[in-house]
Design goal:
mainly beta, single chain, about 55% strand, about 120 residues, about 0% helix, 7-stranded mixed β-sheet, 4-stranded antiparallel β-sheet
């Protein structure tokens, strides 16, 4: 099994910044995609940023390009999401996801991000 624990969410004013962290523990994989999704009230969960399975490339949703940056510390089994210039529309629960090659899809419990106008 895999455990993903997010932290770093909170309440921030528009224009502010937050840094989310996700620590992975348990089973390890050789090839996996890992990243961040979010779900706003009344909306479907959407991909925000992700490392590819090879780890060689990253993807960002159009609405966060230039404002959010995904990074990782392999020694700590941790990925981060640096969120700058936050907007009220970024308000959502942010989930860490690990998607290994060959099956299985793991989620953290989520961390709330609220951006006030």
């Amino acid at each position: 099994q895999v455990q993903l624990v997010e932290s770093g969410g909170g309440l921030v004013q528009a224009g502010g910044s937050l840094r989310l962290s996700c620590v992975a523990s348990g089973r390890t994989f050789r090839n996996y995609a890992m990243g961040w999704y979010r779900q706003a009230p009344g909306k479907e969960r959407e991909l925000v940023a992700r490392y590819s399975r090879s780890g060689g490339s990253t993807y960002y949703a159009d609405g966060v390009k230039g404002r959010f940056t995904i990074s990782r510390d392999n020694a700590k089994n941790t990925i981060y999401l640096q969120m700058n210039s936050l907007k009220p529309e970024d308000t959502a629960i942010y989930y860490c996801n690990l998607d290994p090659l060959g099956g299985g899809n793991y989620w953290g419990q989520g961390t709330q991000v609220t951006v006030s106008s």
